[in-house]
């Protein structure tokens, strides 16, 4: 069924709360990783990627907070997200946006594989013609 305005508002507030909560957890974990780095320990590749993602999210948070703090500016958020799709911190992404990104990446990889396959087939034909 159709959701009321109150239900939509509550869902949005939960989404923002969850996003900020996840960002807070990521920030605490990243701070521990930085502490370990400063004391000479080496991070795994997975930890390094998480640290980089968290730092990028914190830098993305600054323009995002402008939309949250300034009254009625959240109505412009969809426009800016359309213009700058990577502006939103990763903890605020919805599942549908995450799936859409994965589909785009997969399509790009498939196109690249198709191009490489065609190139190799063409090179094989040329080599066959040269040797024959």
TrEMBL record:
The protein's matches in InterPro entries, at most eight in alphabetical order, are given as: LETM1-like_RBD, LETM1/MDM38-like
Q: Which residues form the Letm1 RBD domain?
A: 43-128
Query: How is it placed in the membrane, per its record?
Result: Single-pass membrane protein
Keywords attached to this entry: Membrane, Mitochondrion, Mitochondrion inner membrane, Transmembrane, Transmembrane helix
Q: Which PANTHER family match?
A: LETM1 DOMAIN-CONTAINING PROTEIN LETM2, MITOCHONDRIAL, LEUCINE ZIPPER-EF-HAND CONTAINING TRANSMEMBRANE PROTEIN
Instruction: Report the record's Gene Ontology biological process terms.
Output: intracellular monoatomic cation homeostasis
Name its cellular compartments. Answer: Mitochondrion inner membrane
From the Swiss-Prot or TrEMBL record, give the protein name.
Answer: LETM1 protein
- Pfam families registered for this protein in UniProt: LETM1_RBD
One GO molecular-function entry: ribosome binding
Which positions, given as ranges, span the membrane? 58-81
GO cellular component assignments: mitochondrial inner membrane
């Amino acid at each position: 069924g159709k959701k009321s305005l109150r239900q939509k508002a509550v869902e949005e507030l939960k989404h923002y709360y969850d996003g900020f909560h996840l960002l807070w957890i990521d920030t605490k974990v990243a701070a521990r990783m930085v502490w370990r780095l400063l004391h000479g320990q080496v991070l795994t590749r997975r930890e390094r990627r998480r640290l980089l993602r968290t730092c990028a999210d914190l830098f993305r948070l600054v323009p995002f907070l402008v939309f949250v703090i300034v009254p009625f500016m959240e109505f412009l958020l969809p426009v800016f997200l359309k213009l700058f799709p990577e502006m939103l911190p990763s903890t605020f992404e919805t599942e549908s946006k995450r799936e859409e990104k994965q589909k785009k990446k997969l399509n790009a990889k498939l196109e690249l594989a198709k191009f490489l396959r065609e190139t190799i087939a063409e090179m094989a034909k040329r080599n066959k013609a040269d040797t024959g």
